[in-house]
Design goal:
Helices cover about 35% and strands about 20% of the residues. The protein is α+β, with helices and mostly antiparallel strands. The chain has a seven-stranded mixed β-sheet, sandwiched between helices. The protein has a three-stranded antiparallel β-sheet with strand order 12-14-13, sandwiched between helices. The protein has a two-stranded antiparallel sheet with strand order 1-2. Bound molecules: magnesium ion (MG). The site of magnesium ion has 6 residues, from strand 4.
């Protein structure tokens, strides 16, 4: 029997930072016709697809083929010739030598669904989380996580929009379970890494807590974010971000509370949360569901077992969880 190859985590973290640099560059020259809509109506670009191919090809060449849950597939930009041509152009510029067959493999291999508790390893990839932000010049991030027997044991995200004043090109976050969360400058591979440590000091009585709301928040989303923040007993200031960057803002000390509610839906996509749950927890954040329970990333493509993913600094997690639990009951979704 083939023993699986050991995962070289620093290699993978650098691969995500490399992918982030490539996406930043690709955004500068992105033609309008390479920004299209998926069959479900959400925005996607040639960069999302090219980055998935680039990352999954590099992982497979280094570690062999590992079961994968990835966001993109052949339908993402399929039937949009200008977007497909731009994807192939990017791959050539990035030195991808696999050709059409390897590209098609990378877009077909991420369709795994169903329970992952019995699988030795699973990659979870969102090549660009927050594509609307990528298009708009707002927050976005490549996100990669590794499950072993359904547990997140590694996460690496690239955040080119976070802490740019202190880290060249923004921050790459990476964590191996039990070994803390580490911050690298995306544009400076030689710079020493810093350990990420989430603030633990309770806010002062009149101090505003910073709650992350969606970038294009509706009035009701803003009201809900404010009410949740106020449930901690503090005034509220809203910080805006979509994607796993909302959790990175808590890790980086730029926000105090970020959450995502399931509501009446089928559960959030695992690739929008898996890596961040480990990155935030290893950095010292409170991460959990409305009942304080763990986030179950082992159900396949969706977090079908959780009502919310809550990430909080400064001892605010339990109050946020209680507030969101009360809201779920009031709305009849639990
Ligand atoms: Mg995405």
């Amino acid at each position: 029997m083939n023993r699986p190859r050991a995962i070289d985590f620093p290699f993978v973290a650098e691969l995500v930072r490399d992918a982030t640099r490539k996406a930043v560059e690709a955004r500068r020259g992105l033609p309008a016709e390479a920004i299209v809509r998926k069959p479900d109506g959400s925005v996607v670009t040639a960069v999302d697809v090219a980055l998935q191919v680039y990352i999954l090809d590099a992982l497979a060449r280094r570690f062999g083929e590992i079961a994968t849950i990835a966001e993109e597939d052949a339908a993402s930009i399929g039937g949009k010739p200008a977007a497909e041509a731009h994807c192939d152009l990017l791959l050539r510029q990035w030195g991808f030598e696999g050709g059409a067959a390897r590209r098609d493999w990378a877009l077909a291999c991420g369709g795994l669904d169903g329970p992952t508790r019995d699988l030795e390893r699973v990659w979870i990839l969102d090549p660009i989380d927050g594509t609307q932000g990528f298009v708009d010049g707002d927050h976005w991030c490549p996100c990669l996580a590794l499950l072993e027997q359904g547990e997140v044991v590694f996460g690496a995200n690239g955040h080119p929009t976070v802490l740019r004043d202190r880290f060249a090109g923004g921050i790459g976050l990476s964590a191996v379970r039990g070994a803390g969360t580490w911050v690298h400058a995306i544009d400076d591979a030689a710079a020493l890494a810093a350990r990420a440590e989430v603030r633990q000091d309770a806010p002062g009585p009149d101090e505003a807590v910073r709650v992350v709301a969606p970038a294009r928040a509706t009035e009701s989303q803003i009201r809900a974010r404010r009410a949740t923040g106020e449930a901690t007993g503090h005034p509220v200031r809203l910080v805006h971000s979509d994607s796993q960057t909302k959790y990175a803002l808590v890790i980086a000390g730029e926000a105090d509370i970020a959450y995502s509610r399931r509501g009446g839906g089928p559960g959030k996509y695992v690739w929008d949360h898996a890596g961040a749950t480990l990155l935030a927890r290893e950095a010292g954040a409170w991460v959990g569901d409305t009942d304080g329970g763990a986030i179950d990333c082992a159900r396949g493509r969706r977090l079908g077992g959780n009502n919310a993913v809550i990430c909080a600094a400064r001892g605010l997690g339990p109050a946020v969880a209680a507030s969101l639990a009360a809201r779920d009951r009031a709305e009849g979704v639990v």
